[in-house]
Amino acid sequence: MDYDSNSWIWEGVYNHPHVLGGLMVTAALLGLSTSYFGGMTNSWSNLGIFPKKRSGKRRVRVYMDGCFDLMHYGHANALRQAKALGDELVVGLVSDEEILANKGPPVLSMEERLTLVSGLKWVDEVITDAPYAITEEFLNRLFYEYNIDYVIHGDDPCLLPDGTDAYAAAKKAGRYKQIKRTEGVSSTDIVGRIMSSLKDKKAREDLDGTDAKPQEESKPKVSHLSQFLPTSRRIVQFSNGKGPGPDARIVYIDGAFDLFHAGHVEILKKARQLGDFLLVGIHSDETVSSQRGNHYPIMHLHERSLSVLACGYVDEVIIGAPWEITKDMITTFNISAVVHGTVAEKSLYSERDPYEVPKSMGIFHLLESPKDITTTSVAQRIMANHEAYVKRNAKKAQSEKRYYEEKTYVTGD
Ligand SMILES: *[C@@H]1O[C@H](CO)[C@@H](O)[C@H](O)[C@H]1NC(C)=O
């Protein structure tokens, strides 16, 4: 198996027709980033998201790389596991030029990929010029320039074009650690769902010239259904496990957060800055379908919840939030501010303003969305790139198929 066909965890768009996770697709540079091309440093501990680690002892720095072109919660889970092997996680993002040279044009630009990756709560630093295939020269840079202690990779073999092990040098130096691949996740499946969702929508529009009311439509197609099996343990792993402190100002934002993208990361960041604790309400699949049509959501409730939970600006989520914000809800969660972005997909069917109550209480804030990007625009971009993906990943699909044919019980995180 060659390098490309085994780098499933990063770009794997054509993997295997199963499973999936919160896709993260995006557009924009996280405001946190200080020195963009020199890499960036996050400060989640300053936000109070993670306790500061013991000082004195030298901190263990671990490194994991990837293209992160169609990012979903499986990638986030890999980085979560990598982080657990050290104190600081440095992520190597493969440059646009390297992706172009090795696989064809990326769907997401470096800025977009950087926004998503650096928004993850497990990521401390990002290097933005990682090579597509790790070289001995680059390994030396990691060890001596970036003070990396261990290079982390998934448990699939990773071979260079000449057939040698890409991580041989790191292994020889005793600086290599392995993590389990994340089951139940594939970009292939997500792309497939986007395709069939948009096709359904178009077929309906061709039929009656309009977007039909959801109640007149048939049930969502089976092809939209996820193979992801959400477990309570995974949700716990992604959670902060902390409630608001005393006197905390609690900010509430709600939405579908479908195909989690950079626009989401940026509005969550802005919302978090308005208070001390950000509570995110994630609309149920039924709510999203009833407001936007049966071809949505593309990602299911638990997948969308994991994507939002992986974002460092988020403190807590409501898994299946109501469409209308009630007085009771505001009281129950002691919500001080309810926010909504200026760029959001409008409801097709609801006349009532879901923010009537918080507006009447004077706690509603409309936030200027930093980026003009929506789930629909992301889906369209993926569609436009679909042919390239099919070609690019045909080989990978085969090796993935083999993997699933031979697979047995999978242990680990
Ligand atoms: C509710 O939130 C306010 C801040 O908006 C805070 O001062 C107050 O202590 C909170 N109430 C409780 C019971 O935590």
UniProtKB/TrEMBL annotation:
A Pfam family per the record: CTP_transf_like
Residue span, Cytidyltransferase-like domain: 63-192, 252-348
GO molecular function: ethanolamine-phosphate cytidylyltransferase activity
Cross-referenced InterPro entries: CCT (IPR041723), Cyt_trans-like (IPR004821), Ect1/PCYT2 (IPR044608), Rossmann-like_a/b/a_fold (IPR014729)
Enzyme class: transferase
Transmembrane domains' residue ranges: 20-39
One of the GO BP terms on file: phosphatidylethanolamine biosynthetic process
Keywords: Lipid biosynthesis, Lipid metabolism, Membrane, Nucleotidyltransferase, Phospholipid biosynthesis, Phospholipid metabolism, Transferase, Transmembrane, Transmembrane helix
Record region (Disordered): 203-223
Catalyzed reactions per annotation: phosphoethanolamine + CTP + H(+) = CDP-ethanolamine + diphosphate
Pathway in which this enzyme or protein is active: Lipid metabolism; Phospholipid metabolism; phosphatidylethanolamine biosynthesis; phosphatidylethanolamine from ethanolamine: step 2/3
GO terms for cellular component: cytoplasm
Compositional bias segments (type: Basic and acidic residues): 203-220
Annotated EC: 2.7.7.14
Keyword Lyase attributed: no
Protein family according to the UniProt entry: Belongs to the cytidylyltransferase family.
Name of the protein in its database record: Ethanolamine-phosphate cytidylyltransferase
Gene from which this protein is expressed: LOC107479645
